[in-house]
Structures are given as structure tokens and as C-alpha cells.
Specification:
This protein is an alpha+beta fold. Helix content is 28%, strand content 28%. Among the domains are: 3-58 and 96-173 and 266-340, FAD/NAD(P)-binding domain, CATH 3.50.50; 387-496, Glutaredoxin. The chain is built from 12 helices and 26 strands. The protein has an 8-stranded mixed beta sheet with strand order 6-5-14-15-16-13-17-20, with helices on one face. The relative contact order is 0.12. InterPro entries: FAD-bd, FAD/NAD-bd_sf, PheA/TfdB_FAD_monoxygenase.
């Protein structure tokens, strides 16, 4: 009973830790002989990602991260509006900013203390086959190595072509022509520490955008949209990079910690489950980063995959449960692609119609608050709601009204992530992650799983005589009123 996790970035690390926490032995494979902590990379971590990491023992990431609460949006030389992030009644902040390097360091420390995780560094995957199990061929400094496992989660990132080809998949989609220059700087910028700032067409980057995120230790991440063919080395050598930075921060000391140039993509695989291999994170989908939907969606992939693999390997569910991994997480990837593609069309209009629309929205937003919601600098990461999942039993009394307004959450219902609330037994999400959980009101039906009593009303809006069946990833699977329906809902939630 072993799962091979291929790739040891944050998604692979999270997957390995979640499996081990559920008692599944893991072989964690990574091509690099040692960790290279270079650059901030993914920095913006959403509340539900922090929740997963806290359950794994990495609550320090929330404490170390810089919590930002205000998103400011500018057009040219004036501020259009400031949006304060809602707290959603959780003890966790909506977002924290912390470098990916620090996240990896903390998760590596947890992995080192987990006896069920066998880390194989310096193992570059060269082939993969599925002759009744998963066979992973690797190249190492000491020659070829072969790893066998019952299943594999591929977290090999955007460059994971070897694994994708082996399972007959590729990342199909589009790449955007414009480039983005990213710099990590350290500077004293009073008043900017708790704010994300987005600039449309500022005088110091005319015709394009700039995004500024605060990070711990007086560090700031600045993203400039730059034209195709941009030459970073030439700009550094001629002093233009210094002028670019000073146009934002003024005449004050600063240090550049890291800089790089990226092209953004929207690309998806067709299948996220192929036999015994589950594709996760950037190995399965690529999104433009505006809205922070890359790493955060990858962690959601990892949690979805981990509880399902653990259930199958422990004999609690059949192989059919794994089909729901693709059904749920590919639908999430499609939604993320739609959201980020709409953002990129607003940031980088593709035709005259889009350019006119953007100009009209920005002009109206300067004088009409009703237009603020049309300004698209990236809808921030949020959970995907599994209301259409084959595992979810719909409740006609709680219909899903579709994607809620930006920053809002849908009312609790089947397919919705459980609110982050505490009952007498502890945090509901922590209790759920120990296995299927039934939340009961007086007179509610039983379902043959652990149960915790909850009050009528409350954060769930529970009604007398109801029981709420919750999955091990803290999503509501069903709301039950009839004892005869309890067994059916549980079978459905386990892929039966």
C-alpha cells in the first residue's frame, strides 16, 4: 500500500503529508538533489490553503505570513477604489503573503519528521508505466532506479512533460504574448504593508499594468506587464530597471532580492486521472497568476486526491471513487481557466471590442461606484463548489444559485465547503478530516459514521431533524432528513 508522489514543490509536499497523516506510506520523488530557495515565486496563500497546512502542523505559515486586508486599484494617476477583504467568520485571515521558499522549508521540516514518507531526491523521472501498478523509472547520479507503487500523484509542474506523455496527456490551451517582469525588493514603504496595489496604465508603465504585493520583512513583490521581446539584462545594464523601481518607490534605499521574466498561460489536460495516476497542480493546469489561483488550486487538488486514495487503499471505497477526482478537480480547473482568462482579456485586450470595453469600464469606475465590480484585476482565489459532483446528493431545499459575487461565499449546502466554525468537539473542519462525519440536530437520522451534535440554526443554518454528512475534505456531501436516505448518501459520497 504505497503512493508515489512525483515532484516536491508545495503541491507534492502537501499531498505526501496528507497521505501520511491518513496512514498511507509515500515515496516522494524529486529530480533536484537539494532544495534551491530562490525567489518568492508563489506568495499569495488563501484561507483554505492555510487551513490544510495548519491541520498538517504548519500553522506557523499563517503566523509568519503577512496578512493583507485591502486591495487598492488605480487607473493612471488616481485611485479608483479600495476593497477590504471580508473575514468570513474564520479565525484564519483571507490571505497571507509568504514566499514559496519559506513554505517549502516548513513543509520539508514536517516531512523529515514523518516516518511514512520516504524522500528520494536526485531522482529525475524518465518514464512511467502501469502494468497493474505504477512503475516509475528514474535517472540518478548512481544510475537508473525503479520505483513501484499502487498509485501515483504527479505534481511535476509545468515542465512535467515526461509524466504527461506517459499517460497520453498534454497541456492544451493558449500562451499570452506579453511578458511579465517580477522583482522582489526590500524597501521601507510606510503604509503599504497591509495593502495589495494594482495599477492600470500608470504613467510609469504606460499602456500596461503593475501589481504590488507586500511580503514579510519590508519586502515587496512587483509585477510589471512588459512587451514581448523585453530584455531584462539590457535594462539592468543600462540603469532602466533602477528607474523603473524608483518610479514606484521614489528616492529611497532598496535592495533587489530576485528578478525574473515570465510568460503566462491558460492550459489544461483533458484527464486528471489516467488509470492509477492522478495529475495535480501545474502538471494538470496552468493559469495566469492574477487572483492567486495556481498554488491554491494545486493544494485543493492534493487534498482531494489524498483522502480518496487513502479511502481506496484502506478498503473503505472502491476504485470508482477515484473517477470523482477528475470530475471534481477538472471542473475546478475549467472554472479557474474561465476566471483568469477573463482577467487576462481585461488586462491585455485581444481586439478593438475588448479595448473599448476596458476603456469604458475604467472611465466609468472613476465616477460611478457601480462600475467598480466590472474592473477585473483578478477575482481572488476561492474554493470550488462541488454542487454538480457525482458524490454530492442535491438538496432541493438548498439550491445552488451559481458563483456568488466576488469575495462572497454561497450559503452552506451540499457541495459547499464547511464553514470554519468551532463546536464543543473542536473545529468542524479538523473533525471532518479524521473521516466521514455526521453533524446532527435533535431527532436527526444516523448514517453509521462518527457524529457531532450541532445547534439548530448556527453557521450552517441547520433545521430541526437534519443531519449533515461531511466528507474528509470538509465538503458537505448531503443534508439528510430521512433515515433511509442516510445509507444511500454515504454510498454515493464514497463513489458507490
Amino acid at each position: 500500500m504505497t503512493v508515489a508522489v512525483l515532484g516536491s514543490g508545495p503541491v507534492g509536499q502537501t499531498a505526501a503529508l496528507l497521505l501520511a497523516r491518513r496512514g498511507v506510506p509515500v515515496v516522494l520523488v524529486d529530480e533536484h538533489a537539494r532544495r534551491e530557495h530562490v525567489g518568492s515565486k508563489a506568495i499569495c496563500h488563501q484561507r483554505d490553503t492555510l487551513d490544510v497546512w495548519a491541520w498538517l502542523g504548519a500553522g506557523c505559515l499563517t503566523e509568519e505570513g503577512l496578512t493583507w486586508t485591502t486591495a487598492r486599484t488605480f487607473h493612471r494617476d488616481r485611485e479608483l477604489f479600495a476593497h477590504r477583504l471580508p473575514d468570513a467568520g474564520s479565525a484564519l485571515p483571507p490571505f497571507v503573503n509568504l514566499s514559496q521558499a519559506r513554505v517549502e522549508e516548513v513543509l520539508d521540516e514536517l516531512i523529515a519528521r514523518q516516518p511514512l514518507i520516504d524522500v528520494r531526491r536526485g531522482h529525475r523521472v524518465t518514464g512511467l508505466s502501469q502494468p497493474g501498478c505504477v512503475v516509475v523509472e528514474c535517472a540518478t547520479a548512481d544510475g537508473p532506479r525503479r520505483i513501484e507503487a499502487d498509485y501515483a500523484i504527479a505534481c511535476t509542474g509545468a515542465r512535467g512533460d515526461v509524466v504527461r506523455r506517459a499517460v497520453g496527456e498534454h497541456l492544451a490551451g493558449v500562451s499570452f504574448a506579453d511578458l511579465f517582469l517580477i522583482c522582489d525588493i526590500r524597501a521601507d514603504l510606510p503604509g503599504w504593508a497591509a495593502e495589495r496595489r494594482f495599477f492600470f496604465d500608470p504613467p510609469w508603465n504606460p499602456g500596461r499594468q503593475v501589481l504590488i504585493h507586500p511580503c514579510p520583512g519590508s519586502r515587496f513583490r512587483i509585477d510589471w506587464q512588459v512587451p514581448d521581446g523585453y530584455d531584462l539584462a539590457a535594462e539592468e545594464g543600462g540603469g532602466a530597471l533602477d528607474r523603473r523601481i524608483r518610479a514606484i518607490i521614489g528616492d529611497r534605499p532598496y535592495e533587489v532580492g530576485w528578478r525574473s521574466v515570465y510568460r503566462f498561460h491558460t492550459r489544461l489536460v483533458r484527464r486528471m486521472r489516467v488509470g492509477r495516476v492522478l495529475l495535480a497542480g501545474d502538471c494538470a493546469h496552468l493559469f495566469a497568476p492574477f487572483g492567486a489561483r495556481g498554488l491554491n488550486s494545486g493544494v485543493a487538488d492534493a487534498e482531494n486526491a489524498a483522502w480518496k486514495l487513502a479511502s481506496v487503499l484502506r478498503g473503505e471505497a472502491g476504485e470508482g471513487l477515484l473517477d470523482s477526482y477528475h470530475a471534481e478537480r477538472h471542473a475546478a480547473a475549467v472554472e479557474n481557466a474561465e476566471v483568469t482568462s477573463a482577467t487576462m482579456d481585461f488586462l491585455v485586450p485581444q481586439d478593438d471590442k475588448q479595448r473599448r470595453h476596458r476603456a469604458d469600464v475604467l472611465a466609468r469606475a472613476a465616477r460611478d461606484p457601480a462600475a467598480h465590480a466590472e474592473v477585473d484585476s483578478g477575482r481572488l482565489a476561492e474554493p470550488f463548489w462541488y454542487t454538480g459532483s457525482p458524490l454530492t446528493t442535491p438538496d432541493p431545499a438548498r439550491p445552488f444559485a451559481g458563483r456568488p459575487p466576488r469575495g462572497a461565499l454561497p450559503p452552506p449546502a451540499p457541495g459547499i465547503l464547511l464553514p470554519d466554525v468551532t463546536v464543543a468537539g473542536g473545529r468542524l473542519r479538523d473533525l471532518a478530516r479524521q473521516g466521514f462525519l455526521l453533524l446532527t440536530t435533535p431527532g436527526a437520522p444516523a448514517a453509521g459514521v462518527r457524529s457531532v451534535e450541532i445547534p439548530v440554526g448556527g453557521a450552517l443554518g441547520a433545521r430541526p431533524g437534519e443531519a449533515w454528512l461531511v466528507r474528509p475534505d470538509a465538503y458537505v456531501a448531503a443534508v439528510l432528513r430521512d433515515p433511509a436516505a442516510a445509507g444511500r448518501a454515504l454510498r454515493r459520497a464514497t463513489g458507490g
